[in-house]
Amino acid sequence: MAGLQTPGKHYLARRRNLEQWCAPELMADDAGLERLEGEIAAGVVEDAVEELERVALPDDPTVWDGDAGRVGIWMHPDDCCLESGPLAGARPVAVAACFPGRCAEAYGLSALRIAAVRTVLDDGLRRAGEYFGCGVELLEGKEVAGAVREWAVRERLDVVVAMRPATGPVADALSGIERELAAAGVRLRLVQRPWKAAIHGFATAGFFPFWKRASAWLGGGASAILTKH
Q1: In this structure, how many other beta carbons lie within 10 angstroms of the beta carbon of residue 30?
Q2: Disulfide engineering: 186 pairs with which of 69, 86, 120, 181, CB 3.0-4.6 Å?
């Protein structure tokens, strides 16, 4: 078992943790669990931890203020609920989702995971089409940036707007998408949900401090933001 943890801290799964949190049927065969007890399993921490530079969070707007020209929305697996939130008031001429085929290969996604992503995208496109009253399209192709560019050119778009993706395959493809669109004379604009912008600042020192601060926020002054967005 290996993981990327906060430097100087590590966590090992113990039998009692599994018995407490796993469904009983998953624990029916307990062969090998004795190896998690006592001193048999020990944490090995890599001493040579590379110092990472803190990167400022993107300062994306939390509202869509409109844009001149023909606007298209690019939907991705990180946020498929376009009809609520910052883009609810947009008036796109087209909505497209691109299945990240090359990303799926690079990240070794299983067939079941790939099928789940496609199901989510299909559902998001259906709802977006009904809400915005425009054409929707699931772009096929292994190379996301090229597929998005071809779609934008075909639809004669001036602007492509999208929700800011989280860390992962979609975010990794973002710079390539922006370059391809710029080469075609199309601007890429990103927005984020207000609650996401609010809790980003809580992530400074590991999960549990983040969860403590986020929980207090969720139980306090967050109701208005969550109700609206």
Answers
A1: 10
A2: 181
- d(CA 14, CA 101) in angstroms, rounded, equals 37
What is the CATH T-level fold of the domain 71-192, as seen in this structure?
Rossmann fold (3.40.50)
**H helices present in 66-162, as ranges:** 101-106, 111-132, 144-154
- Rounded CA separation 147/207 (Å): 36
Query: pLDDT, tens digit, for every residue of 19-63?
Result: 888 898 988 998 888 888 777 777 776 666 666 677 777 889 998
Calculate the CA dihedral of residues 134, 155, 82, 127 and round it to 10 degrees.
Answer: 40
Compute the average pLDDT of residues 85-103.
85
Beta carbons of 89 and 64 less than 8 angstroms apart: yes
CB 63 within 8 A of CB 191: yes
Q: Structure tokens of 144?
A: 């996301």
Longest Cα pair distance anywhere in the chain, in angstroms?
66
Q: Is the pTM of this model over 0.85?
A: no
Mean pLDDT, residues 124-139 taken together: 95
Contact 37, 14 (CB under 8 A): yes
Q: Pairing between strand 135-139 and 94-98?
A: parallel
Sorted by where each begins, the domain ranges of the chain are 71-192, 195-228
At 189, give phi and psi (nearest 5°). Answer: -120, 140
